[in-house]
Write a structure and sequence with these properties.
The two termini are 23 Å apart. Helix content is 40%, strand content 18%. By secondary structure, the chain is an alpha/beta fold. It has 2 domains: 3-59 and 305-394, Aspartate Aminotransferase, domain 1, CATH 3.90.1150; 73-303, Aspartate Aminotransferase, domain 2 (3-Layer(aba) Sandwich), CATH 3.40.640. It is globular, with a radius of gyration of 21 Å. Bound molecules: pyridoxal-5'-phosphate. Residues 106-108, 111, 140-142, 192, 196-197, 225, 227-228, 253-254 line the site of pyridoxal-5'-phosphate.
Length: 395
């Protein structure tokens, strides 16, 4: 690290609120699967800015679409219509099979909207204000009060209590643990089809179908949080499509825009009439810059058959990660789906990801003992090999 970089990082530490222990790198630009820091050092990107850059950096067609939109208009408010939002919403509904879209600026806001929809659904049905929600251990749904309340890591929640009440946590892939918590006050079950931050844990297709049947039987809304596992990451546009069930509410963000901030929650026909004028709103949500990005992302996915590419390259990544498990005693298991994979280690992985960074590979953990692999979906077999050789040298 040169003197100027050190000085800039010192400056950052004196100005930014210290809510992250950042790696000592100032990222400067990206190109495809690679990132460059301010000193010109090159990194292979297997993190994609937390599964955001599904198309990598400067994907052909993406920048031009956004630049054209910037030259037209980037904000309108929701008091008026804007064309990119109309296009993006119809693409979202086409791809998901759901009925209506509400645009947000982030993932946690999409979760807030989903929770408000669930509570209002219960209120309309019962006239009562004592709704409860079932979430899961190891889940992550965001940092605002509602989303934090349904996040399954106690240490994230405790300093901010009291959170919204009536939330209980079941065990993933254990339908009996859900049944034990479900009662006449339950308004929603919220689940990530693949848990991300909690350690890359896949909800089995059969479990999602059991949840769907249970929620139908009890007239409870089923919320799928696909903020991390959606948008092609598992080989289908949305992870729930493997299971062949529809949620009542779907939350999206991260790769939905492939870079600019933006999110959405989508609702089924049943939940579509719940939120009405006065119930919910946002100043920036659905702005033409973010929705132009979303519409462009869907266009590019279709034009360049991104899902087919994921289905081709993901088995290769799995095979190479399985080989690492076989070669190294400290690696206990691989788990995940498609291009959302985790390696479970016998101890903390922070030193390993730190050494990988020094060697030019960006990797991140998911919990203390799991290394997470969420590369841009455009990753090639050769780049998987490059990643594996740097990772192996970092063990
Ligand atoms: C990242 C994430 C969120 C929160 O999204 P933000 O945009 O950081 O607010 C919520 N749920 C899941 C599954 C996530 O991965």
């Amino acid at each position: 690290m040169n003197g100027q970089t050190m000085q800039r990082i010192d400056h950052a530490e004196q100005t930014l609120l210290h809510t992250y222990n950042r790696y000592p790198v100032i990222l400067d630009r990206g190109e495809g699967m690679y990132l460059y820091d301010t000193e010109g050092k090159k990194y292979l990107d297997f993190f994609a800015g937390i599964a955001v850059f599904a198309l990598g950096h400067h994907y052909p067609g993406y920048d031009d679409a956004l630049k054209m939109q910037i030259d037209k208009i980037i904000h309108t408010s929701n008091y008026y219509y804007n064309d990119p939002a109309i296009t993006a919403s119809s693409m979202l509904l086409e791809e998901s099979g759901l009925s209506r879209v509400f645009f947000t600026n982030s993932g946690t806001e999409a979760v807030e909207g989903a929770l408000k929809c669930a509570r209002k659904y219960y209120y309309q049905k019962t006239g009562k204000t004592d709704a409860q929600i079932i979430a899961f251990e190891h889940s992550f749904h965001g940092r605002t009060f509602g989303a934090l309340s349904v996040t399954g890591t106690k240490a994230y929640r405790d300093p901010f209590e009291p959170l919204i009440g009536g939330v209980s946590f079941a065990l993933l892939n254990d339908i009996d643990s859900v049944k034990a918590l479900l009662n006449e006050r339950t308004c929603a079950v919220i689940v990530e089809p693949v848990q991300g931050e909690g350690g890359v844990i896949v909800a089995e297709d059969a479990f999602l179908r059991e949840l769907r049947a249970l929620c139908d039987e009890k007239d409870v809304l089923l919320i799928f949080d696909e903020i991390q596992c959606g948008m092609g990451r598992t080989g289908r546009m949305f992870a729930f499509q493997h299971a062949g069930v529809l949620p009542d509410v779907l939350t999206l963000a991260k790769a939905l825009t492939c870079g600019v901030p933006g999110g959405a929650f989508l609702v089924s026909e049943k939940a579509a009439p719940v939120l009405v004028p006065g119930d919910h709103g946002t100043t920036f949500g659905g702005n033409p810059l973010a929705t132009k990005a979303m519409a462009t992302v869907f266009d590019l996915f279709r034009r360049d058959h991104i899902l087919q590419h994921v289905e081709k390259v993901a088995p290769y990544l799995e095979k190479q990660l399985d080989a690492l498990v076989a070669r190294h005693e400290q690696i206990l298991a691989r788990r995940g789906r498609g291009l959302m994979q985790g390696l479970v280690f016998s101890g903390p992985v922070a030193d390993i990801t730190g050494r990988a960074l020094e060697k030019g590979l960006i990797l991140i953990n998911a919990g203390p003992d799991v290394i997470r692999f969420v590369p841009p979906l455009i990753v090639t077999n050769e780049q998987v090999d490059e990643m594996v050789s740097i990772l192996e040298a970092s063990l």
